[in-house]
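User: For documentation purposes, I need each entry recorded in a consistent format: the amino acid sequence on its own, followed directly by the corresponding C-alpha cells. There are two entries in this batch. Please keep commentary to a minimum and don't merge the entries.

Assistant: Recorded as requested. Entry 1:
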Amino acid sequence: MLSWDKSADRSVIFKMNAELRDAQLELLSVCCATDRIRLRFSMEDVAQHGQRDILRKALGAATALHTYYTAVEEQISTSGVNAHQEETRIDERQILSAISCVAAYIREQRERYLPAAKPLDAQHHTLMEPFFSAPLLKAVRIMEMTGRRLPKPTFYEDAQALGVVNLPDITHMTSLTFEEVLVFRDRIEERSLFHALIQAVQFQILGLQRYVELFVRAFLKTQSHFNVPLEAHTFTLECKFAGDPSRPFSVEEQVWLWVNQGRY
C-alpha cells in the first residue's frame, strides 16, 4: 500500500492524483453528453429506439464505473470524514475574511504579471474566435512562466490551521486566471488556453468580488475545488471544446445561462 511517509511513494501518489483529475474531466464530458440526450429524449424513447449494441456498451461502462467508485467510497473512513467536517466548520466572519484574502491575492497577482503579459497571438485568436467575443480576446493578456512555479499563497497556512484541506495545488496548475491576465506554467496548449479563457469570461460577467465569494463559499462547502460550480462548469465547457473544436458555441452565453439560473 502506498504511503506519504515513503519518499519513493510520493511521486506515485502525485501521478495517481493527476490521472484521477484526468478521469474526472472525462467523466464530466460523459455527463455533459448524457445530459444532452436526457433533455431531448424521454427514457422510454431511448430504451425503445436506441441501438441495442450502443446501449449495452453504455450500460456496461456505467455499471463498471459505479461498481468501482462505490468500492472506493466504501474504503473511505466514515469517522474520518465526519471528524474532518466537524474540524473545518468556519463561521461567517472567517468566511468573509477568506473572501477578502483571495480577492486581494488575485488583484496582487494581476498587477504583478500584467506589465510583462502580452496580447493573444494571431493564431490563438483565430482558433478561439468562434467561442469567445472579440472584446474579450482583445482584452486578455498572456504570461508564460516557462517552467517556473507560482508559490503557494501566504493565506494557505492560515486556512490549513483552521482545518481546511484539499486547497488547489497552485504550484502544479497548468494555468491560472487573474481576471484578464492568464498565466501559464509552460507552453500554451489549446485546451489549457480555452480553460483559462472560460475563467476570464466568468470574471468579466460576475466581477472579481462576486466570483471570489461564489468560489470560496462553494469550496468550503464541498472541500474540493473540482466540485465548485464555477470550476465544474469550466471543465464541462472545456471538455465540450476538446470533444469537437470544429463545432462553435458561445462561452459567454453558457456562463450567462448558469448565472441567470443561479447555478453558480
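Entry 2:
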Amino acid sequence: MVVKRFILYYKLLIYLLKVPMNEFISTYTDFLKIEKRQSPNTITSYRHDINYFASYLLSKKLNDVKTDDVRSFLIFLREKGLARSTVARYLSSIKSFYRYLYTEKLILNNPIEIIDSPCPWRKLPNVLSAEEVDALIAAPDIKTSAGLRDHAMLELLYATGLRVTELISLKLSEVDLSVGYLRTLGKGSKERVVPFGDAARIAIENYILRVRPSVSQKTESTDLFLTRRGTTMTRQGFWKILKKYITKAEISGNVSPHTLRHAFATHLLERGADLRSVQQMLGHSDISSTQIYTHILKERMREVHDRFHPRG
C-alpha cells in the first residue's frame, strides 16, 4: 500500500513538472465558471492576479513554489506602490487558486495556507448628498428617447442599490411594476428581491411605454434597458452615460457607477433603516461588507443619546 502511494505521488510529480502553470490556471478558471458560477468580471480578476503571480515566478513549477516566494511577491507588490487592499486582493486570488490545486490533489503541499491576509483599512466610499443625487437624476433630457432611458436607469440604480452589472442584465420579466419589486442575480448567481419606490416605477413605465418598443423591434431582446440599436447596454456604455450627466450636474469628486449604490445604502441608514435589511438589499453575503457604513449608525446613536439622555 505504501509502495503504491509512493508510485502515485511520483507519477503526479512527473506530470506536474511537464505541464505549464498556464494550463492549471485555465483549468481553475473553468472551475470558477462552471462549479462556482462566478461572474465573468470576477473570473477575469482572478485570472489577472494569478497570471501576474505566475509571471513573477518565471519558470518555477507548481510544487517548487515556497511560502517565501509568496511573501516575496507580496513585498514586490507593496514596493510597486500598490494599496494594501490591492495586495490583499492578490493574496486572496492566489490562496483560492492554491486551495483548488490542493483539493484536486494537483499539488502535494499548499505553501500559502499559513500566510495571513493583510487587514486593510476600509475607507468610507465617496457618497453623494441627497441634493447631488437629485441633480444627477434630473440631468437627462426626458424630452428625448435616450434621456427617458437614462433617467429610468439612474432612478432605478439609486432606488435599489443594484450593481451596474445587475442593472444592465435586468430582464423585462424580472421587474414587477404593479408591486414595485424586481428580481436580480447577484454575485455567485444568488437571487434576491429588491423593492423600489414610485419615482423609479414612473420613470421605468415612461421608458417602457414610450421608448423601448421602438428599439426592441430591432433585436427582440428581453433585456429591460437597450441601446438605440436594440442591443444590451454594456458597463462601459453606462459609464460613459454617467460621466456625461456628472459633468452636466456639476458634481465634483470621484464619482463612479458604484457611487449611487453607496448613496443608496448611506441615505437609507441615515433615515433609520437597519443594517441587516440594507445588507439584504445590497446582496452582501456577509454583513461585514455592509459594516463599512456603520459610521452612519454611530453618528445617529450619538445624536439620539445627546437628545434624549437625561444627563446628555
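Summary note for entry 2:
Confidence is low (pLDDT under 50) at residues 9-18.
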